[in-house]
Amino acid sequence: MTEFWNWWVIVIVAINILGCWGLLFWTRKMKENEVEDTGTTGHVYDGITEYNNPLPRWWLIMFYITLVFGVGYLILYPGLGNNKGVLGWTQEGQLEEEVAAAKAIYQPLFDKFLKVPVEELANNKQAVEMGKRIFVNTCFGCHGSDARGNPGYPNLTDKDWLYGGNPAQIKQSIVAGRVGVMPGFEAMLSAEQIDELVQYVGQLSGNQVDAAKAEAGSKTFALQCAVCHGANAKGNIALGAPNLTDDIWLHGASSRSIAQTIRGGHNNQMPALGDILGEGRTHLVTTYVYSLSNSK
Amino acid sequence: MSKAKAERIPVKDLYAKAEKIYPRQVHGFFSRLRILTVFLLLGIYYIVPWLTWDDRQAILLDLPARKFHLFGITFWPQDFVYLTLLLVICAVGLFLFTAFAGRLWCGYACPQTVWTQTFIWIEEFVEGNRNARIRLDKKPWGPEKLLKKTAKHTLWILFALFTGYTFVGYFSPIRELWDGILAFSLGPWEWFWIGLYSLATYGNAGRLREQVCLYMCPYARFQSAMFDKDTLIISYDEERGEERGKRKRNADYKADGLGDCIDCKQCVHVCPTGIDIRDGLQYECIACAACIDVCDDVMDQMGYDKGLIKYTTEHSEKGKSTHILRPRTFLYTSLFMGLIATFFFLIATRTPLDVNVIRDRNNLFNETFSGEIQNTYQLKVLNMSQVANDYELKINGYQTSQIDGPTKFTIDAGGVLTLPLRVSIDADELEKRSNDIYFEITTLNDSQDTYIAKGKFLGPKKEK
User: pLDDT truncated to tens, each residue of chain B (464 aa)?
Assistant: First the structure.
């Protein structure tokens, strides 16, 4: 607040408090000669006379108490322009207190769970439930509440892992995020070559394809694609290059979708959540994700 | 200057100091009735928190956990409608009793009356009867007055503290609360609430008393809207009583032009709100019937008939007959009974289960290779009962619907289960882009309670 608005608020608040007090003080009595013997105030409106039925004095005192309360509040809490108040209360301070209170409840649980390796913790129902709740809060947007993924976002319940499925690898994906790049080959390959590649990778996953085209595609694959996806097309978890032989398709299973992927490529990003979740929650989400494909 | 001073007009305060009222204690039929209700109601209030049910406090309104245990049922915030209905029933009940019997509530059952009565008993025990109390207050401060006043306030405060403690005991386990008080280990909020309710008890029943009825209570102000000429009121028989006046016991007062009222002012002395019932029906009258009891005694002593002040109606005062059955009482009675029936029906058929369907928002739908449409949901299933239960989930309304996720699950008592699942429905079966879908959850126990939660299932636009 600038100095002007600071004083603007202070002056208005002061006028209000003084005004209330003045109004109460000014109206608390009436001149004796107005009170007639009949006990009326002498006021007549359309033939209706007003009785003088005095309110109890404690009622008036309560009005004064509200004024004292108001002044007390303004001294203790922020409210009078830029004045911070004696208690130093702030919204941020209250938030920090509440976060600290929540931490006091959860941190011992986190500490307990952090000592247990993920493989073992995946059998602990409470830990998995906690991990699930964190997952459906934080991860559902891309991977879906059921973790079965969405087009472009991997299914986390199968055994197919882009960056590896052991606990350390899962945790690394969550903490630091992942960036997966599939370059587009539109400029380098002819439409025919792309079609042949589609037939070839279709064949790798056991689909019915044009065998001659697939054979031609295999040569292009060895030249262009094997660098990342591997000569046997089993993928490479160091790069996040998917396994192309398991009929699991991140960006669509139709030949049209696969052709589109080869032509235009894809940039996929898993955001880094380590700072957002913190160590304890990360451990629990890891446990939950691990349990999805390794339970029992 | 001096001239102006002389002409200064005296002023009158528009706020008056409340006159202290010293109600004399009465003995009679209606007073005994009130003693009965005081003991009954306060007994219920002080004893109920100590009752147990299944190793748990029978009535515990656990605000931090938002669980409200009432004997065998646990209510949740989701059940707020029952509380609303209960309050509506109470309100209509008040209307009903008012229409039949006037301010029955004020005179016998209102907490203000009940606690004030108790505080007056304590006051009378320490300071003596009405006259003794008036004398004591007029006396200058001395050892006796100091002792009596200290004793009275100490007893009041102790009783108020016990009341405050009991009140908090409805919200925080009362036995642990007691241990906490003895060990001085309660949290600041428990001290605060015990203190506040003790202060409220002490202030309302010890200090404010009739001021609450006169200036604070909304019912006292709007009850007149429910009165008619057939409503039971406490009334002085003016025709019989006037001219009021003093007389010798066996004098022929009628020859002197006097009525039955001997103007002893006993009815004024016993009145807890300090009014004179002989002035007619007044909003201050809480219908406690103390004046009836005391006047009947006086009439007895004088050898007159009882009932100079009595429960009556405006109609019967004027010699007309009183109609108990009238449109207003029919309406209130049928409303009251109807609401009570609805309340018990709803409680009896209540399913202790709550299901929230939350559809994943970021993705409209997925298509599978075989032409199925998939939507993903989180079901939040809350077991509101007091025992763990097994549940079964199915989907209503679609031939081809399939659930990819758990359909049988167990939830602990009071537990919430987050159930992520994916539902597939054949594209051919979807009529519109946005379709209703019903998740039916059945409790796998004897009750077979079923809860149906509605959600939306999104699909592609239909090709024409």
Answer: 444 444 555 567 788 888 899 999 999 999 999 999 999 999 999 999 999 988 889 999 998 888 899 988 889 998 999 999 999 999 999 999 898 888 989 999 999 999 999 999 999 999 999 999 999 999 999 999 999 999 999 999 999 999 999 999 999 999 999 999 999 888 888 899 999 999 999 999 999 999 999 989 999 888 888 888 889 999 999 989 888 888 887 778 888 888 899 999 999 999 999 999 999 888 899 999 999 999 999 999 998 999 999 999 988 888 888 888 888 889 999 999 999 999 999 998 888 899 999 998 878 888 876 778 999 999 999 999 888 999 999 998 899 999 988 899 999 988 899 899 999 999 888 888 999 999 999 999 877 888 999 999 999 887 66
Where does chain B hold its CATH 2.60.40.10 domain(s)? 353-458
- Which residues in A lie closer than 8 A to residue B418 (C-beta atoms)? 129, 132-133, 136
What is B353-458's CATH number?
2.60.40.10
Q: Does A59 touch chain B (CB under 8 A)?
A: yes
Contact A56 B15 (CB under 8 A): yes
Pure H helices in A139-184: 140-143, 167-176
CB of B370 less than 8 A from some CB of A: no
CB distance B420–A146 less than 8 Å?
Answer: yes
Contact check, Cβ <8 Å, B362/A33: no
Fill in the amino acid letter for B199.
L
Nearest-CB residue to A150 (from B10, B16, B366)? B366
Sign of CA pseudo-dihedral B50, B51, B53, B59: negative
Q: Which of B9, B15, B376 sits opposite A60 (nearest CB)?
A: B15
Phi, psi dihedrals of residue B377, rounded to the nearest 5°: -135, 160
- A151: chain B residues, CB-CB within 8 Å: 366
Q: In angstroms, what separates the C-alpha of A137 from chain B's closest C-alpha?
A: 10
B420 contacts A143 by C-beta, under 8 angstroms: no
**Cβ pair A56:B9 closer than 8 A:** no
Do the beta carbons of residue A293 and residue A158 sit within 8 Å? yes
Residue A166: Cβ within 10 Å count: 14
Q: Which domains does chain A have, with CATH numbers?
A: 3-76 (no CATH), 101-177+271-294 (1.10.760.10), 180-270 (1.10.760.10)
